Amino acid sequence: MAMTSSRTAVVTLPADTQILITRDFEAPRNLVYTAYTTPELIKRWWGGDRGEVTLAEVDLRVGGRWRYVMTANGGFEVGFHGEYREIVPNERIVSTEIFEGAPEAEAVVEHTFTEKNGRTTLTMLMQLPSRAVRDTIIDSGMEGGLQEALGHLEQVALSLR
């Protein structure tokens, strides 16, 4: 099942248990990476337009943990957490990701930051436990929130210039 988006990020389904997200940013890699990994900056972009990020904890080291929580516009709380498995600063992060509302559906996400001519491409390859989990994520409206969040991420990265 191939799925593409006409929005800024491109979402594809390369395999039954994968989601691939690719997004270009008008900012250098070090600024995108800094905005992506710094708690006070994460609070500015991660929730998109869907709520207020109330917690962004980052222990950016192999074996370290991360956790983000937001109060959604509807008043309910949404949380995600995971553990860092690999880190190459400004280039690559591999971590687990668990939506706290469905803790059995752990994903492994490879984030790759590449730069060309002062622009950064961020790719996120999510490996999921099953096709059913992948489809549930896709059907959840994840893409709309993702598009908003990545748009805000670009603005935060640009503000660091």
Any overview of this molecule?
The protein is 27% helix and 41% strand. It is an alpha+beta fold and 161 residues long. It is globular, with a radius of gyration of 15 Å. The protein contains 4 helices and 8 strands, in the order ββααββββββαα. Strands 1-2-8-7-6-5-4-3 form an 8-stranded antiparallel β-sheet. 25% of the residues are buried. The model is unreliable at 1-6 (pLDDT under 50).
Write the layout of secondary structure elements.
Blueprint: E1 10-12, E2 18-25, H1 29-37, H2 39-45, E3 51-58, E4 65-72, E5 77-88, E6 92-99, E7 107-116, E8 119-127, H3 131-139, H4 142-159
Antiparallel strand pairs: 1-2, 2-8, 3-4, 4-5, 5-6, 6-7, 7-8
